[in-house]
Write a structure and sequence with these properties.
mainly beta, 4-stranded antiparallel sheet, L,D-transpeptidase family protein, LD_TPept_cat_dom
């Protein structure tokens, strides 16, 4: 069994990101919003992808909680990326999934909120990253719970939109998701900001 931590060196806890993805929604209960990717340009930010429609949690956005389908609000690093498809050219750490790749979401498990590669997993609540379908053709971790605190939710990703509200993730169209992965660069310390009524990234 191989376990991957949910935090990647050089990605998490960056003070000066040069890439920011902003996800804005009109209200806390909204299941939809918009996503725009920005990169630092001189003294400000330049939009490079979007705005594009985004699907959010079934219960909207707010404080994260296990088994509550709500997208966490705040600013978080982007970490491990993966997909059922081969690496599209991202510079982020990437693995192509098989039916032996899982994300453990069991609050009582020692591998809670981590990627586990194993034929079987001793967990009462683990998501198979291959069998979950086309939404995980391309995905990247929204590392909202790097301390892996039980109760603060696990397995929050930016992934491909399947047309339905998510279980707390952010989902965008397949081509846009691929473009995001191609653009992301771990040396730019990419982050994602999710909130209500956002009109862009913070001042550079």
């Amino acid at each position: 069994m191989t376990v991957s931590a949910s935090v990647n060196a050089g990605v998490a806890n960056a003070e000066n990101p040069r890439q920011i993805i902003v996800v804005s929604t009109p209200s806390a209960s909204s299941q939809t919003g918009s996503l725009t990717a920005y990169e630092r340009a001189g003294d400000g930010w330049k939009a490079v992808i979007g705005p594009t429609p985004a699907m959010l949690g079934e219960l909207g956005v707010g404080s994260p909680e296990d088994d509550v389908f709500r997208t966490p609000t705040g600013t978080f690093p982007l970490g491990q990326s993966f997909g059922r498809e081969p690496n599209p050219g991202t510079r982020m750490p990437y693995f192509q999934t098989t039916d032996e790749d899982w994300w453990d979401e069991d609050v009582d498990s020692p591998t809670y909120n981590t990627h586990v590669h194993a034929a079987e997993i001793d967990s009462d609540d683990a998501e198979n990253l291959y069998d979950s379908g086309e939404m995980y053709d391309y995905a990247v971790l929204i590392d909202h719970n790097p301390q892996r605190i039980p109760g603060h939710s696990a397995g929050i990703f930016l992934h491909v939109n399947d047309g339905d509200p998510t279980w707390g993730c952010v989902a965008i169209a397949r081509d846009q998701m691929r473009s995001v992965l191609e653009w992301l660069d771990p040396t730019a310390h990419p982050q994602i900001t999710i909130g209500i009524g956002l009109d862009g990234p913070p001042a550079a």
